[in-house]
């Protein structure tokens, strides 16, 4: 839109061109050069698109379609007036006006190219009329041209919004109206108005060295005012439909996964019920849970843990896992060994107690993977890892006194340098049943106890859906981590569970949110955590310590998981080893009390992503606060 009392683009171009011709009596520096938007030119050079179009016409050439496309409606009207084009612009939208101007210019340029070039050469040679042309322009052209343009554009500008007028004039008092801009409003704006819109709306658009038409397109795009072509609309429709189908597919997958989880959980619950019945059928309580008079019947050993006899999180295990026929053959051969001290000949070699391994296992149980620290057995079609649940408590400098009873149960008392003790009761298969912390003053905190009462079987279908509040641990998201570590059990869960039920039944443990440790990346077949990765667990370690300081009987389940590459039994043992490494890292680097941690590997049985084969998301370690799930004994 033109401004009263200033030079139009056409006149400005004429003046600038005239100044390039040597003239008598008028210095070139006395007449300023202005561009298409009435701004001073840099170094005397015109910058406007309209000026370039006029220069093409003066040279007898037809402007390109791209150049005409860059002109707004006001500039097109100026061009029509300046070249006296046979076009009636009233009521024509900008697109039709551009097409008409392009066609008219092409026709005229072809007819008048040679006369125009001859006239230009004559003017360049003689310089005659320069002063007269400048005077004419300065005295009358501005008023005449501007009045004509404003008359022709009156019909279009009557419908302009107050926001457009504010943008052109820079009136800050009505900036709120800029929210109501339309694409037609932008088409009627000049460069200054567009820049004002960019400033008011804080749009991320580069203004410098950007042509007006390109600026208009950028503003339209940022404000979401671009008119989509049929192809674009079809693409958007396809994207919307695709998103809907993808959401529906994900929902279906979630439902299928939920159903599979329920099925697996029901099978796990049935296995747990059967084992509980088998334990109850024994009749007598485990000797390790009885009073002190039974100590006379126990075999007691005492030792001091050293750096050499304990493992740290950045060390590999001393022995490799063996699977298949090799493990089975080893079990049979070593179970016949008279000394009973070989890897599989006695469960004592695993720290499990005094019974031979074949006394712990049933007639149909099969050893499928083994090492000196773990044995994986198949019991009634289910894989199960046997190991010493106390191993991570035995840190260098601790004195460990273990009482082993004839029924295979054990009671271990670990005494620390500060005089505090941790007392653990384990079943013959190494499974921890009870853990108590005794402070130096003699007061006790029962952390968990599966020995004092019977627990009702789990009906999986009566449980709520899994807790979806789990987080992937990041050092930059302390709030989400804290939320997961302090989550409470859903209000509609009106019961508590045994530690065995939590460890063995996925639908039970998933009632509490997991923290997935994305900072830990294990190498193939390795259980080592590198120091840098351990240090990345700092926020997790500190928050766990804070939670335990507030409630000393807190319990955290440290889980290991693998993908489906390799043997399932091997993966189970490997995942359990890796869970132990995570627990050790939390203990060694951040002083998390080891008695508040329970370690469990799940191998490939609980995939985060339901795919077979290598999958990074399935090779994970997690920490889950399970305190609300446990029914604790009376203090």
From TrEMBL:
Taxonomy, superkingdom:
Bacteria
CC terms in the record's Gene Ontology section: membrane
Q: Does the keyword Signal apply?
A: yes
Q: Which UniProt keywords apply?
A: Membrane, Signal
What is the residue range of the signal peptide feature?
1-27
Output compositional bias ranges, type Acidic residues: 142-161
Q: Which InterPro entries match?
A: Bact_OuterMem_StrucFunc (IPR050330), OmpA-like (IPR006665), OmpA-like_sf (IPR036737)
Composition bias type Basic and acidic residues, residue spans = 254-278, 305-314
Which residue intervals define the domain OmpA-like in the entry? Answer: 509-634
Disordered as annotated region, ranges: 108-184, 253-340
Q: Which organism is it from?
A: Salinihabitans flavidus
Stretches with biased composition (Low complexity): 319-334
Quote the PROSITE patterns the UniProt record gives.
OMPA_2 (PS51123)
Name of the molecule in the record: Outer membrane protein OmpA
